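Sorry to interrupt, but I need a hand with the structure work. Could you write out one complete protein record for me, on any chain you like? Could you add the entry underneath, on a fresh line?
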Amino acid sequence: MKLYLKECKKIASSILYYLFIAILVFSWSQNFRGVTQAEINRANGITPAAVGFERPLLSKPSKEGNYFGSKISEEDPEAIMTGVTRTLLSEYEDNSYATYPLGYYKAITLSSSKQKQVLEILCEITGLTEEELKNLPDDYFPAVTGTMISFEAMNVDKDENLNMEVEGGAETKSEDNKYKHFVSQVTYEHFKKLMQVMEDIIGEKGSQYSHEMMITYFGISEMNYEEALEEYNQTINKDKVTGGFARLFCDYMGLELGLYPIFLVVMIWMKDRMSNAAELIYSRKVSSAKLVISRYAASITMILLPILLLSFESLVPLITFGAEKSIVIDYFAYIKYILWWLLPEVMVLCAIGIFFTLLTDSPIAIVIQFLWWMVDKGITGLSGDTKFTTLMIRHNTLRGYEIIQEDLQIICMNRLLMAGIGILFVSLSIWILTLKRSHWGMIRWRLKAVVPVLSGLPVRCVSCITDAWRILKVNFHLAIRTNLLVSFAYLLTIPLLRGISNLDRAHSAECLEQSVILIGIFLIVPLNKPEQSKAIREVVYAKKISHWKILLLRFATSILLLTIMICLFCGIMIWKNCTFPFGVYAAETAIRAMALGSLGLAVSILSNSFMAGYLASAAYFLLNFVGNTTTR
């Protein structure tokens, strides 16, 4: 217990921990803060400035109401077929089919033979010939089809407000008017089979022709009074008011906890090595199991503590609301959801951080966790899409109690699996640490062959260097080479995560801004890492060559390499039929990457912790990239 409390105090005294809390609070403030009070205000008749398409969750619907909210269903198959056919025709004409295989945009261009197959499907659905499809009237499709809205449906009133007109009635749908307006010539069941064929033709997952995406985009319809009343009763009686808010809170916090804590965990174990305390720790009488478990428990406690405190901003107003309306609420909903929703996620993340840091004596766990975070975030839907191996459970809505109940078994299995993986990695970490303490010299020598331990090189090398070329050469091997290899390896993974072929200007910019600029973090942030060992830093600062000159040399070299790599990547994108101005986009990407890396380097130097630099750069990028996390 004493060791556990000591580790908690050690974490609480770290600058990196307060940086982690600041990022967490900022993200919470951007996404969740005020949501609860806004719903309470709507229930009390106070309408906020921005009103969405959903009715107030905590307000009982009235039969006299004219709008009861929206839902996603297959109740209107004609609307679904209309929207999907409109999308298919548009993509056929451009020969560019949007897919999201890992949650990130990828354009697919089909061969002429496959395009002919798509044309046959369109002709079968519409009952028109190729020539007739090329000369459709402007109002062939409705102005509004699901999430697609034509400019013709929009108008500006005398008060300069933008309004949307929805057609009230349509012509009688029969064989006679199929040339004027879309009328499906196939049944909905056959239409779904044709869309399965379309998915096979495209050959990538995540297109708009999957059954799930068809309903999501084009199955939007209005609820009736009975459905709205059932939803209200479900919120009050089954969810006990607080359940929906607790789920949304955990949804947002789960995104942050899926990545940011890894910096804190890695820092705890890397700090021993950077302060030359590793040998001392390995020689102490405290058992390996006690040390690992104490630090593991302390990490989990300190990570979840601010989450628990932030939940009170939502819980307290709901308690007051329940007392005023005489409604029974669940006071422990947030604690329960944090424990079974977020705790297993934090357990597996902390365990991975400990294991790979002990195994390699490097921050490689950050790269591993970042890749897992990116893939998991991309392939997981916003709600009701929990799989057996999902890291971050998503439920980005205050509603949907029934979705959680339907998926409860798979969610419980998933959380047990995550907790089990965490325990497994902790056990392996204890074994690794035991080996290191028993045969420290031999194990360290073997690990050097896999992940170079560079902390002992700089002083010995710099002291004998007299010319600029040798300084550059030594510093390249010391502080740049590994970063360069990591950056190169990362660029190779981008085509696996998202498409880099047949992109227009907008999607090319998205690829460069969301993925390529990250090499600035890998190349620039750790430039000061070798001198962050206390013993080495004292010797380096005593040398004749100023440390800032060495850093400037490393920085300039990294910028040059960064620019070359970005230009090569942009050149490959142009070669893969992407359309964008090469010079402008390459320059902007290089500048953004340099700024992103420079921010982390500055934090690293000021805090004397390269982990703080990584966290600062990653947080700045993710808060801009993720933004409002309610959309994929």
